[in-house]
Amino acid sequence: MKENKVAFILIPILLIAAIAVYFTMKVPDEVETASSCYSQATAAVQSQKWEDAKKQLNQCKLKYQGDGKFDFQLGNVARMQNQMDQALTYYLSALGTSPQLIEAYNNAAAIKMLQNKLDDAMSIIEDGLKQKPDYKDLNFKKGQLLYLKQQYTQVVPLLEPLVGDPEYFEAYRFLGLSQYKLGQKPQALNSLAEYLQKASPTTQGLQEIERIVAELKSP
Question: How would DSSP label each residue in the chain?
């Protein structure tokens, strides 16, 4: 029952994290011949002039075919307008043209996580990590999904390199809980205690972590 309770608490946290942290607006490296067109279009994106941005991006896309970064930015515009299915279509189209666009894997995986299509998300993550094995956002997502699949032995080495990065302090939660499930009590206590120090008092699921820490501290 305790394991089911923890999983129940963590699933909405996983989905919230997909929105709050792991979408990226990073700009892929520019292709020199399309740089002027792309710069103008992305300026409209950054100014949140969505209709102007879509018009310019579609014009660039027609002019510079074979470059996925225009679809990537169209996906960002659709996402900012809460059109998640359309955003996903654009991200996947970007990857079909330019499979090196690591940020498109990240955003597509985040949408699949929001849709609770976790196997699809994992497949996209794995494809992205083939392009860039050390990409932190994708490794963190993978660690969360592996935890939900109860593959704890894989979670620990995947998340240990991330916990020192303030942007990924939530890694302490999934690392500590995996160590707890594996019976690694001293390590779990260290990880979860560190998590409690860094987490906001209003963080969802905090009471369950506090309960586990109290258990680990008891003789």
Answer: -HHHHHHHHHHHHHHHHHHHTS---PPPPPPGGGHHHHHHHHHHHHTT-HHHHHHHHHHHHHHTTT-THHHHHHHHHHHHTT-HHHHHHHHHHHHHH-TT-HHHHHHHHHHHHHTT-HHHHHHHHHHHHHH-TT-HHHHHHHHHHHHHTT-HHHHHHHHGGGTTSGGGTTHHHHHHHHHHHTT-HHHHHHHHHHHHHHS-TT-TTHHHHHHHHHHHH--
